[in-house]
Design goal:
110 residues, PH-domain like, four-stranded antiparallel beta sheet
């Protein structure tokens, strides 16, 4: 049995870093840390009724984004911190939260 995402995907943060720990069943463990001051863009992909929303974090030193499911343990707290640090527009966050799903919202927009 695989369990829920929050059973094997954990995200936490402190003043300087976002910490990601992923221990998926039957796969290698992944650990990563993202410096807050390296973030250049955040996107929020709405999943709709049957899929998890996703937080995509883009940083200067890596071409790929980090994908964090909102259902990860600590995911909701991280999203609140992102908005609280003005790394994602609060009005756009409300629009994303009330969208039907399958949409991508990014900040800054360009």
């Amino acid at each position: 049995m695989v369990g829920s995402i929050s059973d094997w995907y954990e995200v936490s943060f402190d003043d300087d870093f976002i910490h990601i720990k992923v221990e998926p069943p039957d796969r290698d463990e992944i650990n990563a840390s993202i410096r807050w001051d390296e973030i250049i863009r955040i996107c929020f992909k709405t999943g709709g009724l049957y899929e998890s929303d996703e937080i995509l974090i883009f940083i200067r030193s890596r071409p790929e984004s980090y994908l964090i499911p909102s259902e990860a343990f600590g995911g909701a707290d991280l999203w609140g911190e992102i908005v609280g640090r003005d790394l994602f527009d609060a009005t756009l966050a409300i629009k994303a939260a009330t969208s039907p799903g399958g949409e991508l919202f990014c900040w800054p927009k360009d």
